[in-house]
Amino acid sequence: SAGSTGKLYAQIKNGAPFDVFLAANAREPEKLEMDGVGVIGPRFTYAQGRLALWSRQATTSSQAQAGLNRQGMHIAVANPRLAPYGKGETGVRAALHVNPAGYLVRGENIAQAFQLVWSGNVAMGFVALSQVQDRTDLHGAVWPVPAQLHAPIEQQALLLSRAKKKPNAIAFVDYLRGTA
User: Fold this and answer.
1) pLDDT tens string 67-83
2) For residue 43, what are the CA distances in angstroms to 15, 16, 28?
3) Which segments within 56-99 are labelled E, that is strand?
């Protein structure tokens, strides 16, 4: 099941039948661990998230950056209350002292922010670098946001308590933790 980290956290807290939680941050897995919903100890970082600014209209990354200040520009972002990438985007705008002259269009999560740009409904947006990196089917330009412009996005995995004796769930978490 895919969704924003915040919404998945709420579903798990309310008894959703999941075995493993792959979050886009460290906060919710830690809270689940402390609440006894997650198995203490096996929580680990499986990826470091990175932001990118993707503009369908720009041809260079500097043009994409300049679009942040363009009057009337609609910019897709993930909801910062629900999604770690949304929080990261807020940090980037603060670090760059950018107050968009256009409008922020909030998706529930980073996947929805990407969809808004991909569909052409929004000309540019802050997306996960992994969504746009090495893609040949994208139009426009991508600016990989320097990691120092936002707080680290540590994506963590957690085996949930209901699955502590489920061999397949344990094997999956071990696989994610491994070098392969």
Assistant:
1) 887 777 889 999 988 88
2) 19, 19, 11
3) 74-78
